[in-house]
Automatic annotation (TrEMBL):
Keywords: Metal-binding, Molybdenum, Oxidoreductase. It comes from the Bacteria. Transmembrane segments: none annotated. Its cofactor is Mo-molybdopterin. GO terms for molecular function: heme binding; molybdenum ion binding; molybdopterin cofactor binding; sulfite oxidase activity. This is Oxidase. PANTHER family: SULFITE OXIDASE, MITOCHONDRIAL (PTHR19372:SF7), SULFITE REDUCTASE (PTHR19372). InterPro entries: Ig_E-set, MoCF_OxRdtse_dimer, Mopterin_OxRdtase_euk, OxRdtase_Mopterin-bd_dom, OxRdtase_Mopterin-bd_sf. It holds the Pfam family Mo-co_dimer. GO terms for biological process: sulfur compound metabolic process. Residues 96-264 form the Oxidoreductase molybdopterin-binding domain.
Amino acid sequence: MNVNDESNKLQRRLFLQRLGITAASLTFIPFRGMADTETLEFGNGIRELVAYPQKRPLMLVTARPPHLETPFAVFNEGVLTPNDAFFVRYHLPNFPTSIDVGQHRLTVTGQVNKPLSLSLAELKALGETVEIVAVNQCAGNSRGFSSPRVFGAQLGNGSMGNARWTGIPLKTVLERAGVRAGSKQITLRGLDRPALPGTPEFVKAIDIDLALSGGPLIAWAMNGTEIPFLNGYPIKLIIPGYFGSYWVKHLSEIEVIDHDFDGFFMKTAYRVPDNDCQCVPTGSIPEKTRPISQLKVRSFITNLRSGENVSAGHPINLQGIAFDSGSGISSVDISDDGGRHWQAATLGKDLGNYSFREWHKTWEPQDKGKVALQVRARNRRGEEQPAAGLWNPGGYAQNAIETLSVLVV
């Protein structure tokens, strides 16, 4: 596939012709609008809006490899994030720009009785197709709000999305291969590669118990259509409740191993302090770390932005989203006095424990002046968002109570 949706092909050809670039040039040349930008609420927060094939204009973080954030207003469009607005994150600059789905294979090797090499058609024929609605969130989502700032992409709140994923359980594939006794983990690899010798390959690993739990999914469809190229076409690993670094795009290789994998993106990168809060005192270095894994409970107001004016005495239907790692959201509360008092919001339709959960609350501001609106969520395990951000050197797993400053006039 060179992005096989016909309308997108036509749009790309017209765009390339407009720039005087031949079709043999780089497939994924972005279209930059006329000075369209989005401003995030931290220092150096101006982001250019750029449209890649199959994508509406998204916030550009890096161009090589593509790293694109979703403008936050998108999350007010509905509980499912549109495919063309879903964030994009690659780790290595040699990313694929064209995939022949007829030639693409998923291999399963290592500690198995029967090594596999599966085409997409063969994968689909292995067992029953399943669907799940699940949030994919980058581990560094909201990193730009860390104080003091930390190394890494300075992300706002747009490196997340919620979609309906269709595919086959990873368990089904592994059972067909026959996992041998004593197996400990599986490693996962896609098609992106380093540009320079010595640069670590992007390989992730999960424990064999998780791999065989029935939760992880090898997906080929997203919101009812093929997965967009930049989100992992033709197949992508989905691990509901886990951060997006495990959701390997263009999945091509699975290896079953009898030891703990110690590759760079498990042993060095994507690690958090090894304690309950995954935090350390500001500016300090953790004594012990562990790989980041499951999402934390979070919530957002989606139909207001900081700095907006609202009218005193006029009711406003506040709305937003909440999610966690899979226990499910039990409640969402709103405060308009800096967290001294809280009012319960009403939860919307439940699309499953791994999905965004919509909520709404009628709020009628009375006194004029600045108001700090806050939203917090609690899950069915009793976990609640912290009042303030918890710091770690990677800026990972941010989930502090969100605060919007609005002016009542």
